[in-house]
Design goal:
By secondary structure, the chain is mainly alpha-helical. It contains 6 helices and no strands.
Length: about 150
């Protein structure tokens, strides 16, 4: 008889101190007043999971726009960011915004799916609220009553 053990996922929020996490949560809430403390805290975790996946991926990954906002907030704390990267990954993870050729890397949805897969493979929790693009179907111009469809009221 074979038994399988379900491995629990790592909460990436544990990668930084509670005190610094509270600072990032506060910074994000200042930038986005409608953001709840609970959602901001989860967002910090998704950003940290994204960075951990990036550190070990041999292919480009892409944050969602909201996860990218959390990353930008962390980057503004340059000393803490540099120390975090050195301690956790042995090198700095550079933010390199720019266009990635869809022929070579897939479009945005493909990159995000790859990113979510990489986070999961690295053992971290995924909170799909921070990766909403994965629920969107690529537009096929089928005029199925989408918001920009001629059939939409």
């Amino acid at each position: 008889m074979t038994t399988t053990e379900k491995r629990s996922r790592i909460d990436a929020r544990s990668l930084i101190s509670a005190e610094f996490r509270a600072t990032l949560v506060s910074n994000m809430r200042d930038k986005f007043p409608g953001l709840t403390e609970e959602k901001a805290d989860r967002g910090v975790g998704q950003m940290l999971a994204f960075l951990a996946a990036c550190a070990y991926s041999d292919r480009p990954l892409s944050p969602s726009p909201l996860v990218d906002d959390f990353w930008h907030t962390f980057l503004l704390h340059t000393e803490e960011y540099d120390n975090f990267c050195a301690e956790k990954f042995g090198r700095k993870l550079h933010h390199k915004p720019g266009y990635l050729d869809p022929e070579e890397h897939g479009g945005g949805k493909v990159l995000r799916a790859r990113t979510v897969d990489a986070i999961t493979l690295a053992g971290y929790e995924i909170d799909m609220e921070f990766w909403p693009e994965l629920d969107l179907a690529p537009c096929s111009q089928c005029h199925a009553n989408c918001s920009d469809s001629p059939n939409h009221p």
